[in-house]
From TrEMBL:
Organism: Paraburkholderia solisilvae
Protein name from the UniProt record: Glutathione S-transferase GstB
Top-level division of the source organism's lineage: Bacteria
Domain GST C-terminal residues, every copy: 86-207
Matching PANTHER family: DISULFIDE-BOND OXIDOREDUCTASE YFCG, GLUTATHIONE S-TRANSFERASE-RELATED
Family of this protein: Belongs to the GST superfamily.
Amino acid sequence: MLNILGKATSINVRKVLWTCAELQIPFNQEDWGEGFRSTRTPEFLALNPNGLVPVIRDADFVLWESNSIIRYLASRYDGAWLYPADPLARASIDQWIDWQAADLNRSWSYAFLGLVRKSPAHQDAGEIAASLERWTTHMRILNGRLEATGAFVAGSPFSLADIPIALSINRWFGTPFDHPRFPAVAAYFERLEQRPAFARYCRNGQP
């Protein structure tokens, strides 16, 4: 059985849990990370030298990096409906997955850590304001994309890209500040509410 190492409150672990739910993959989940078992132990570092969650063990195969994991799961466990083999369809999905990791997440990092996590190292008001401005810029891009598709991030069907994107949007709604109104993003979240895994692993009260 697939083993998932990482606490269920982690946004990156939740990507993996949500993907498993969509693909109906049985799994065991072990709590690792802050507040649980340390990821700095030799045992964990032998699996992921970065000391970060999630990590999966699929029989003898070990993999870390959440976006690599969800791509692997969709490819390994009959997830062509979620992550098609067609190069054009897959490229569009990969584009938005990579954008979430490289651009969207980096924009909200400082503001989220300061306003939600209350990190003492992230309390500079100017830096928080700059982070919120960058975040808003990226959310405007996303709103425009969702206006264009009228459905999901990569096009008409729900795809693997929607899992990381939705988790980042959930952080947007869960961070206390005066949010600009993005109607297409709000409508997108209403569409996602029809998916049981969305309620369990994304809009579940965890930022």
